[in-house]
C-alpha cells in the first residue's frame, strides 16, 4: 500500500520552513562588482551631501544684501574678483559690490549667499577689470545647493539586505566604499534525478527527454541571489542518488533535487531522506502545481525535494527556496512581492487546492493585468518562458473569468514582502 501523505496549507509549509531560515555571513567585494548583490550592512550617510554649499548653475556668486535696492532700471554694477570651476575654491572673503564667476558644482565663496545665472547679466570690461550688471534683487540662499540638502549625515539610505541597484552603487561611491559589505551568497547544490534524462547536448532518444529542470533551477537560483553548484544528473538508482545527496551536503549551504519525490517505484527521495536520518518538514502541500514538494533538514542544512515536473519544480522553487535565499541574504522582506491585478483571460478550471498559475504581467490603463502564460499543467515547460508572475487562485474557488481581481506574485521584483502569516 502506497503511503498516504497529508497535505498542509502553503502558509503552514512556509511557516514551518521559515523557522529554519538563518541569515548568512557578510563579505566584501570591490565596488565595481557590487551591483546585483545585497547589502551586508545598512548604508548610513557618514557625511552631509553635498558636503559644502555649492552652485547649481554657471553664473556669478554674489552677496544678496548688495542687491536690496536693485531694479530693472537701476541695475547694480559688481566687480568680478575671481573665477572658480567645480573642484576649485575661492580663497578670500568676497566684499561689498563684488562677485565671483562660478561654475556648476563649485563651492560658494565665503561672503556670498546667492548665485545669478550667467544668462541674466551683462558683462562689462573697464580698464582691465570685469564688471557685471545685475538687474534684479536676490534673496539670501537663492540658487544655492545647500550642504546636506541631498542627505544629512546619519540618515539610513538603504537597509541591510537591500538589493544593490545602480542608485545604491552611486551612494556607495559617494560615501567612499571602495570595498562594499555584501551578504555572501549561499551556495545551492542542484542534483537532477531521472533515468529518462538526456544531457542538453544529446540527441533525442525513444522514451527520453532532455534535462531542462537543472538549467532552469540554476537560473532561478541566480535570479534569487544565490550561487548555483550543479552536481549533475543521475539515473533513478537508489545507491547512486543516495551517495550523491550525502556527498553534496558537505559542499553546499542548501541542496535542491529535482524529480523522484512522489510515490512511484523509482521515486527514491523519500527513502533517501529516511536513510539520511533527515527531519522531513513536509512532503505534501495543498497546492497546484508542486504538491509533492518536500523539504527536509539534515545537520542544519535544508534539502529541497522539488518535483520533476517542470512547472511544479519552478513553482516549488519560487515559493520555498527563494525566501530561504533572501533571508540568508539579510533581506528584510524575504517573500515575493504580491500585488492585486486584473485577470487577463478566463481560467475556467476549479481550484481544489491553492493554484499558482504561471502568468505574464503587463500594465494596462494604469493597472496590472496578469494573463496565464500558456497551458496550465504541472508537466508543461513552454508556459514558463513568458512567466514573470504567479497568479494566486485560492483553494476552494471555482473558475475565474477575465476581469476578475486576483493576487499576483511578482517574480522579477527585488523589494519583496515581509514574512507575515496573513500576508
Ligand atoms: N500515483 C501518484 N502519482 C503521482 C502523484 C501522486 O500523488 N500519486 N503526484 C504527481 C505529481 S502532482 C507530480 S508533480 C509528479 C511528481 O513526480 P516526481 O517529483 O516524483 O518526479 P519524476 O517522477 O521524477 O518526474 C516527473 C516528470 O517530470 C519529468 N522530469 C523529471 N526530471 C526532469 C528534468 N530534470 N527536466 C525535465 N523534466 C523532468 C519526468 O520525465 C516526468 O515526466 O508525480 C505525479 N505522480
Ligand atoms: O506536484 Mo504536482 O505538480 O501538484 O502536479
Ligand atoms: Mg515520480
UniProtKB/TrEMBL annotation:
It comes from Aquibacillus salsiterrae. Catalyzes the insertion of molybdate into adenylated molybdopterin with the concomitant release of AMP. It is an enzyme of class 2 (transferase). This is Molybdopterin molybdenumtransferase. One of its GO terms (biological process) is Mo-molybdopterin cofactor biosynthetic process. It catalyses: adenylyl-molybdopterin + molybdate = Mo-molybdopterin + AMP + H(+). Its cofactor is Mg(2+). The keyword DNA damage does not apply. One of its GO terms (molecular function) is metal ion binding. SUPFAM superfamilies: MoeA C-terminal domain-like, MoeA N-terminal region -like, Molybdenum cofactor biosynthesis proteins. Keywords: Magnesium, Metal-binding, Molybdenum, Molybdenum cofactor biosynthesis, Transferase. The keyword Magnesium applies. It comes from the Bacteria. One of its GO terms (cellular component) is cytosol. Residues 189-327 form the MoaB/Mog domain. Gene3D superfamilies: MoaB/Mog-like domain (3.40.980.10), MoeA, C-terminal, domain IV (2.40.340.10), Molybdopterin biosynthesis moea protein, domain 2 (3.90.105.10), Molybdopterin biosynthesis moea protein, domain 3 (2.170.190.11). Its EC number is 2.10.1.1. InterPro entries: MoaB/Mog-like_dom_sf (IPR036425), MoaB/Mog_dom (IPR001453), MoeA-like (IPR038987), MoeA_C_domain_IV (IPR005111), MoeA_C_domain_IV_sf (IPR036688), MoeA_linker/N (IPR005110), MoeA_linker/N_sf (IPR036135). Pathway: Cofactor biosynthesis; molybdopterin biosynthesis. Belongs to the MoeA family.
Amino acid at each position: 500500500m502506497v503511503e498516504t501523505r497529508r497535505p498542509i496549507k502553503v502558509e503552514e509549509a512556509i511557516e514551518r520552513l521559515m523557522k529554519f531560515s538563518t541569515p548568512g555571513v557578510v563579505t566584501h567585494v570591490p565596488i565595481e562588482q557590487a551591483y546585483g548583490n545585497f547589502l551586508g550592512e545598512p548604508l548610513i550617510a557618514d557625511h552631509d551631501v553635498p558636503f559644502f554649499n555649492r552652485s547649481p548653475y554657471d553664473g556669478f556668486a554674489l552677496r544678496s544684501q548688495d542687491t536690496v535696492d536693485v531694479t530693472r532700471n537701476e541695475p547694480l554694477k559688481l566687480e568680478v574678483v575671481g573665477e572658480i570651476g567645480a573642484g576649485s575654491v575661492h580663497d578670500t572673503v568676497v566684499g561689498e559690490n563684488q562677485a565671483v564667476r562660478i561654475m556648476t558644482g563649485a563651492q560658494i565663496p565665503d561672503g556670498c549667499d546667492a548665485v545669478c545665472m550667467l544668462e541674466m547679466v551683462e558683462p562689462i570690461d573697464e580698464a582691465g577689470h570685469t564688471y557685471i550688471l545685475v538687474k534684479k534683487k536676490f534673496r539670501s540662499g537663492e540658487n544655492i545647493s545647500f550642504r546636506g540638502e541631498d542627505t544629512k549625515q546619519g540618515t539610513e539610505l538603504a537597509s541591510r539586505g537591500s538589493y544593490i541597484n545602480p542608485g545604491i552603487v552611486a551612494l556607495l561611491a559617494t560615501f567612499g566604499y571602495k570595498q562594499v559589505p555584501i551578504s555572501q551568497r549561499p551556495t545551492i547544490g542542484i542534483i537532477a534525478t531521472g533515468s529518462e534524462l538526456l544531457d542538453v547536448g544529446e540527441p533525442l532518444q525513444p522514451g527520453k527527454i532532455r534535462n531542462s529542470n537543472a538549467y532552469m533551477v540554476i537560473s532561478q537560483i541566480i535570479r534569487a541571489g544565490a550561487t548555483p553548484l550543479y552536481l549533475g544528473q543521475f539515473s533513478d538508482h537508489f545507491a547512486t542518488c543516495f551517495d550523491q545527496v550525502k556527498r553534496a551536503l558537505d559542499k553546499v549551504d542548501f541542496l535542491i533535487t529535482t524529480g523522484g519525490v512522489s510515490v512511484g517505484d523509482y521515486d527514491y527521495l523519500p527513502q533517501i531522506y529516511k536513510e539520511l536520518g533527515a527531519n522531513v518538514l513536509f512532503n505534501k502541500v495543498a497546492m497546484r502545481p508542486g504538491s509533492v514538494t518536500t523539504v527536509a533538514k539534515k545537520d542544519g542544512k535544508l534539502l529541497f525535494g522539488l518535483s520533476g515536473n517542470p512547472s511544479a519544480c519552478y513553482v516549488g522553487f519560487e515559493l520555498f527556496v527563494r525566501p530561504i535565499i533572501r533571508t540568508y541574504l539579510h533581506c528584510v522582506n524575504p517573500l515575493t512581492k504580491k500585488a492585486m491585478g486584473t485577470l487577463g483571460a478566463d481560467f475556467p478550471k476549479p481550484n481544489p487546492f491553492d493554484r499558482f498559475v504561471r502568468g505574464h504581467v503587463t500594465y494596462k490603463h494604469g493597472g496590472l493585468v496578469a494573463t496565464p502564460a500558456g497551458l496550465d499543467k504541472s508537466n508543461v515547460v513552454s508556459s514558463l518562458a513568458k512567466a514573470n508572475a504567479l497568479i494566486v487562485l485560492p483553494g476552494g474557488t471555482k473558475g475565474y473569468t477575465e476581469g476578475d481581481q486576483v493576487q499576483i506574485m511578482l517574480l522579477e521584483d527585488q523589494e519583496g514582502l515581509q514574512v507575515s502569516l496573513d500576508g
